[in-house]
Design brief:
The chain has four helices and six strands. The protein is α+β, with helices and mostly antiparallel strands. The mean pLDDT is about 90.
């Protein structure tokens, strides 16, 4: 996950900060937090251990895959981190929910990913509320 998902700006300066989720986070698995300021791992109730890495997407994915021991690895975070993993070709399957709210600020997910449709099969499903679900599945190269 990206560092901003783990905590608010400045969490790295608070040695007592242990995430948004209280003593038993919902992950129940090793969780890797990408940050420019790593710190020691934090073991939480329910099997969640947060590991703080200053690593490239590829290095972080390698660490997560080793910890997953053959199980699936999920990536969570903001648009900058997700874009970095997509640009590196490290995402096999992705589900994005697009909500029709114009905020006028923030980071654009798709910047720099103009050829994404060449690497992924994309399925869209719209709902009456205007929410659109986009599913990206990496194309198999034969």
């Amino acid at each position: 996950m990206g560092a901003n998902k783990f905590g608010p700006p400045g969490w790295q300066d608070d040695p007592q900060w242990r995430g948004w989720w209280g003593t038993n986070p919902p992950f129940h698995t090793p969780t890797f937090v990408l940050t420019h300021r790593p710190r020691p791992s934090i073991e939480m109730a329910g099997g969640t251990t947060f590991h703080f890495l200053a690593a490239s997407p590829s290095e972080a994915l390698d660490a997560a895959r080793a910890a997953a021991d053959g199980q699936d690895v999920r990536i969570g975070g903001g648009p900058t981190m997700v874009r970095d993993f997509l640009a590196a070709g490290l995402v096999d399957h992705m589900h994005v929910v697009q909500v029709p709210i114009l905020l006028g600020r923030g980071v654009r997910l798709w910047d720099g990913l103009e050829a994404l449709d060449e690497a992924y099969d994309i399925e869209t499903v719209s709902s009456p509320s205007g929410v659109t679900h986009l599913t990206f599945t990496h194309k198999v190269v034969s």
